[in-house]
Amino acid sequence: MIKPIRNEKDYKLALSRVESLMDAKPNTNEFDELEVLVTLIDNYEAKHYAIDTPDPIEAIKFRMEQEGLIQNDLVSCFGSKSRVSEVLNRKRRLTLDMIRNLHNQLNIPLENLLGEYRLRC
Questions:
Q1: Angle of helix 81-88 relative to helix 56-67, nearest 10 degrees?
Q2: Using CA atoms, how far apart are residues 78 and 93, in angstroms rounded to an integer?
Q3: pLDDT by residue (tens digit) across 12-52?
Q4: Buried/exposed code over 15-29 (b: 16+ C-beta within 10 A; e: otherwise)
Q5: In this structure, are residues 69 and 63 in contact, taking their beta carbons and an 8 Å threshold?
Q6: Domain extents in the chain
Q7: Class of the 56-113 domain?
Q8: Contact criterion met (CB below 8 Å) for 29 and 35
Q9: 3-state percent helix, strand, coil for the chain, nearest multiple of 5
Q10: Local structure of residue 23 (DSSP, 8 states)
Q11: Is pLDDT at 53 greater than 90 in this prediction?
Q12: What contacts 5, CB < 8 A, 6 or more positions away?
């Protein structure tokens, strides 16, 4: 019987049940149960395990780390070495052109680049 997931115990039981249903065939009661449980689990995780997206500067630094890039590698996205430094040190905001370049050249999702962040004076 399917029940709401109200706490960690319910959550773990639902995960265990999903694991046992992973081989369910479509158009069966087990498959229907699997779909409902996955929806309940997604809802519970969204409420209790939400992961905030990084601010734009952290997203850029994360991609730099992933790709082994240094600040000089971003000059084509920002226009100059000094702009790269100013943006990464939160002294200058990203412009629309910089956002487009970062998205197109480094495949950073636009939603990560459009977020708010604080500047340092």
A1: 120
A2: 11
A3: 999 999 999 999 999 999 999 999 999 999 999 989 988 77
A4: eeebeebeebeeeee
A5: yes
A6: 8-48, 56-113
A7: mainly alpha
A8: no
A9: 65, 0, 35
A10: T
A11: no
A12: 11, 14, 40, 41, 43, 44
Phi-psi region of 25 (alpha: psi -120 to 50; beta: other; left: phi over 0): beta
What is the predicted pLDDT for the residue at 121?
A: 74
Q: What's the angle, vertex CA 47, arms to CA 15 and CA 42, rounded to 5? A: 40
CB 105 within 8 A of CB 73: no
- pLDDT one-digit tens code per residue, 68-110: 999 999 999 999 999 999 999 999 999 999 999 999 999 999 9
Do 25 and 52 form a contact (C-beta atoms < 8 A)?
A: no
Amino acid at 43: N
Cβ–Cβ under 8 Å, residues 98 and 88: no
- What CA–CA distance (Å, rounded) separates 109 from 99? 10
* pLDDT at site 51: 78
For 1-12, what is each residue's pLDDT tens digit? Answer: 889 999 999 999
Q: What length does the chain have?
A: 121
